[in-house]
């Protein structure tokens, strides 16, 4: 299955896919992979929310070390949310994106 360059596709993105060898590969729906990745992201977000709530509610955890653990949990939470957004916004229309969309969406 050969992909065809259509009107409106971003030539820089097409050049990248040509260079990386991904342009000629057939695309699969990969619904199962998407569901597994979303499930992992949801678990990451829930686990980090649990850590943040435990640190916030327990006065014994209000020290420097736990402050750093809370920062790690918050950054991991935000990374999980960003990856979920990336999964939802990545689709078959990625060939049509402009440079600004790659910076904003990923």
From TrEMBL:
Subcellular location: Cell membrane
Protein name: G-protein coupled receptors family 1 profile domain-containing protein
Gene Ontology molecular function: G protein-coupled receptor activity
G-protein coupled receptors family 1 profile domain residues: 47-106
Annotated Gene Ontology cellular component terms: plasma membrane
Alphabetized SUPFAM superfamilies for the sequence: Family A G protein-coupled receptor-like (SSF81321)
Gene3D superfamilies assigned: Rhodopsin 7-helix transmembrane proteins
Predominant localisation class: membrane
Domain of life where this protein originates: Eukaryota
Bilayer-spanning residue ranges: 35-56, 65-85
Keywords annotated in UniProt: Cell membrane, G-protein coupled receptor, Membrane, Receptor, Transducer, Transmembrane, Transmembrane helix
Membrane topology note: Multi-pass membrane protein
Source organism: Salmo trutta
